[in-house]
Design goal:
Four Helix Bundle (Hemerythrin (Met), subunit A), metal ion binding, binds fe (ii) ion, Haemerythrin_Fe_BS, iron, single chain, 66% helix, plasmid, transport
C-alpha cells in the first residue's frame, strides 16, 4: 500500500470532518511518497510535524462535534485518539532526535491502516448523530 485515496466508504456524513480526513490522508500519502532514506530526514521531520499538528486540530474538532451531538461513546473515542497522537509523537521524536535514519515504513503504514480503520469503523459510529445512516 503506497497511496490511499479517500472514497465514500470513508464518509462520516459531516462535510467538515470528511475534509479533515481527506487532508490527513493526503499527509500520509505525502509521507509514504517521500520514502525513508538518509537524505530526506529533514523532509520527513517536517511532514511528521505537520501531521502531528493537524491531527491535534482535527481530533479536537471531531471531539467537540461528538460532544455537541450527544454521542455517548465519547470517552472511548477520545482514548483511541490519544493512542494515535502518541504514536505520531513517537515517530516524530524518533526522526527528530536521531541521526540514524530508522526504517519505520512499517510503522507509518500501521498508522495509516489504523487511521483508515478508525474512520471506517470508529468514526462511522457517530454518523447517525449527524442525521446520517448507521454504519454498515
Ligand atoms: Fe475519530
Amino acid at each position: 500500500m503506497d497511496h490511499v485515496a479517500w472514497d465514500e466508504t470513508m464518509s462520516v456524513g459531516v462535510a467538515i470532518l470528511d475534509d479533515d480526513h481527506k487532508k490527513l490522508l493526503d499527509m500520509f500519502n505525502g509521507l509514504l511518497r517521500t520514502g525513508i532514506t538518509a537524505g530526506n530526514r529533514d523532509d520527513l521531520c517536517a511532514l511528521l510535524g505537520s501531521l502531528r499538528a493537524y491531527t491535534t486540530v482535527h481530533f479536537a474538532r471531531e471531539e467537540e462535534w461528538m460532544e455537541s451531538h450527544g454521542f455517548p461513546e465519547l470517552p472511548a473515542h477520545k482514548a483511541a485518539h490519544r493512542y494515535f497522537v502518541e504514536e505520531v509523537e513517537k515517530l516524530h521524536r524518533d526522526f527528530e532526535g536521531s541521526n540514524t535514519t530508522m526504517l519505520r515504513v512499517d510503522l507509518i503504514l500501521l498508522l495509516k491502516e489504523w487511521f483508515i480503520e478508525h474512520i471506517q469503523h470508529v468514526d462511522a459510529q457517530y454518523r447517525p448523530y449527524g442525521g446520517g445512516t448507521a454504519p454498515h
